[in-house]
Specification:
- The chain is of the alpha+beta class.
- The protein is 54% helix and 15% strand.
- It contains 3 helices and 2 strands, in the order H-E-E-H-H.
- It has a two-stranded antiparallel sheet with strand order 1-2.
- Strand 1 and strand 2 form a beta hairpin.
- Helix 1 packs across helix 2.
- It starts with a helix and ends with a helix.
């Protein structure tokens, strides 16, 4: 999902710092903030794929 990854990074760069602390989705029963999603996506982890899929499904990216 390279396009989703790029979209997320562009959106993240423009989000105010305070908003980055807010929860954007719940994945496997755990809350994910913009900051947590950024760390996962930047490091290209297995969880990053799940996060990106959910954000695309939710039409956030």
């Amino acid at each position: 999902m390279p396009d989703a990854r790029e979209s997320f990074l562009k959106i993240y760069a423009n989000i105010p710092l305070k908003v980055r602390e807010e929860i954007i989705l719940v994945l496997d029963g755990k809350p994910i903030t913009w900051n947590a999603a950024y760390v996962e996506i930047k490091n290209d982890t297995d969880v990053a794929e799940k996060i990106l899929k959910e954000l695309v499904k939710m039409e956030l990216i």
